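Subject: design request, 189 residues
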């Protein structure tokens, strides 16, 4: 008997020392006994993907990859903001993404993903402010975009105060993007 290679009998059994393994027992190794767990995992993953897919279709999820302003009104709570933007001074020069998303591909899609998750969670759990209010992360983006477009007009005022004491543009110009605050959300003053 050659111990390095083992011995194969005419019946298909292999022998290494005193241990004999038959060809019928070999498939029992590895994931044997875990079939119920694999089935349960498959059912769970399938259900999760099905629910996520249904939610993406129902909520028109892929539309959020565009820059179309009407997308922002997919959620009924944003209808007032969309309507007021159509009557505001920036309607002809800026869409929602111009003010509410950072410049650059990575920053835009990071903000869209972060806001999309937060908005979906808030809507699902019904734990959003009414009227809606801009959060600090998004307020900083709006401020940066105001300055990016209007830097030539406000450069001296911003430089005189410095970034630490910079006044929020929407503090004085609250109606620029969405018109007058007629029941709209925004920072409480």
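Subject: RE: design request

Done. Sequence follows.
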């Amino acid at each position: 008997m050659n111990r390095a290679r083992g011995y194969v009998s005419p019946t298909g059994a292999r022998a290494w020392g005193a241990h004999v393994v038959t060809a019928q027992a070999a498939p029992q190794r590895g994931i044997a006994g875990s079939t119920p767990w694999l089935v349960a995992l498959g059912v769970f993953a399938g259900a999760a993907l099905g629910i996520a897919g249904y939610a993406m279709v129902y909520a028109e999820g892929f539309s959020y990859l565009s820059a179309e302003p009407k997308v922002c009104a997919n959620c009924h709570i944003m209808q007032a903001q969309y309507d007021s933007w159509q009557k505001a001074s920036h309607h002809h020069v800026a869409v929602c993404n111009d003010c509410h998303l950072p410049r650059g591909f990575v920053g835009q899609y990071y903000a869209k993903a972060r806001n999309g998750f937060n908005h979906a969670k808030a809507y699902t759990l019904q734990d959003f402010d009414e009227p809606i209010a801009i959060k600090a992360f998004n307020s900083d983006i709006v401020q940066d975009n105001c300055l990016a477009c209007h830097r030539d007009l406000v450069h001296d005022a911003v430089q005189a105060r410095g970034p630490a004491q910079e006044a929020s543009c929407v503090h004085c110009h609250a109606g620029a993007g969405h018109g007058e605050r007629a029941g709209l959300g925004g920072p409480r003053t």
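The longest helix spans residues 136-161.
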